Amino acid sequence: MERRTIGAGALEVGAVGLGCMPMSWAYTGSRQRGDASLRTVHAALDATGAGVTLLDTADMYGPFTNELLVGRVLRERRGEAFVSTKCGLLVGEQHIVANGRPAYVKRACDASLRRLQIDTIDLYQLHRADPEVPIEETWGAMAELVAAGKVRALGLCAVGARAHRRTAAGRPSARLHEVTIRQLERVQQVFPVSAVEAELSVWSPEALDELLPWCVARGVGFLAAMPLGNGFLTGTLTPGQGFEPDDLRARHPRFTAEMMAANQPLVVGLRRVAERHGATPAQVALAWVLAQGRHVVPIPGAKRARWAVENAGAAGVRLTSADLADIEALPAALGSWD
User: Fold this and answer.
1) 122: part of which helix (H) or strand (E)?
2) Active site residue 104
């Protein structure tokens, strides 16, 4: 069973985690089923040979319903899980706003503990900084939660990369994670950062430039969000298939029919490597993320038990230098901005 560490406190987690968001939020709502989601979480924890322990959720997913769902599993299996949840974003009818006020953060933590049916959150992450509250004040309140025994460690989610992917002139941003790194430098002076969660995948490798090296240099864990490219890298999506209006991919610049067709060489390349290992493209995509460093933990989302089990199996795929070179040589992903 492969284990990886998060932060200087050496918090241990399985090599591959489980992103619980798709069970309640952002993806096709008509395919979200409570019982199926519960089976998915149980299946991930049952994949002990792969070491799945990290369950990643947030109070905004649903909102609130994702934590309630995870809590139903934790009521029975708390000792087997490493729980990561987040605070700092409020969901309205047509908008999402940040709230980093210290009093709110503390209330949000207590509410998450109740929904999750646990006494302590293993990793409590700030989803987004509130532009109206100095991030040091928000982080200080989160540090007080650690002192109170309600939280074990703190993490920060990177500012959404896609919003900054292009400069005004249309060129790729030279410092995609500059804002996040500045935030990290500031909060690190208040209380140690144990983990950073940010997008990292074969089709979005930008975190390798500056953000991951920043984490490595300081012993900070890296949780790789969207490691399967929102499902595209699994090879199970068909160009032009369409998405329901509530699915984030309906507005994603890489999920138009034209761009999905243009990016098929990525899937073909992953499938070619997968055939060498008797694996799936998804497992190879996750194995590539795992190969980026010992403190990197991919947290692929899944709504079905069979996908969670398949993803967990990526921990057993060992890519060779030739495999990694082949993946490195794949064309960069295109979006409707290109």
Assistant:
1) strand 121-126
2) no
Counting as low any pLDDT under 70, the low residues of the chain are: 1, 26, 28-33, 48-50, 160-174, 337-338
Between CA 58 and CA 125 the distance in angstroms is 9
Whether the CA torsion 52, 162, 268, 231 is positive or negative: it is: positive
Which residue shows structure tokens 């999905």? 260
What does the angle CA 36 – CA 39 – CA 45 come to, to the nearest 5 degrees?
A: 145
**Which candidate in 27, 61, 104, 124 is catalytic?**
61
Q: What is the DSSP string of 62-116?
A: TTTHHHHHHHHHHHHHGGG-EEEEEESEEE-SS-EEE---HHHHHHHHHHHHHHH
Give me the percent of the chain exceeding a pLDDT of 90: 80
Check residue 317 and give its pLDDT. Answer: 96
Note if the bond before 63 is cis, omega within 30 degrees. yes
Q: Is-above-0.85 flag for pTM?
A: yes
Which H or E run includes 321? helix 321-328
Strands 96-98 and 89-91, sheet pairing: antiparallel
Phi-psi region of 12 (alpha: psi -120 to 50; beta: other; left: phi over 0): beta
Distance CA 160, CA 154 (A): 19
Burial profile 226-258: b = 16 or more Cβ within 10 angstroms, e = fewer: bbbbbbbbbbebeeeeeeeeebebeebebbbee
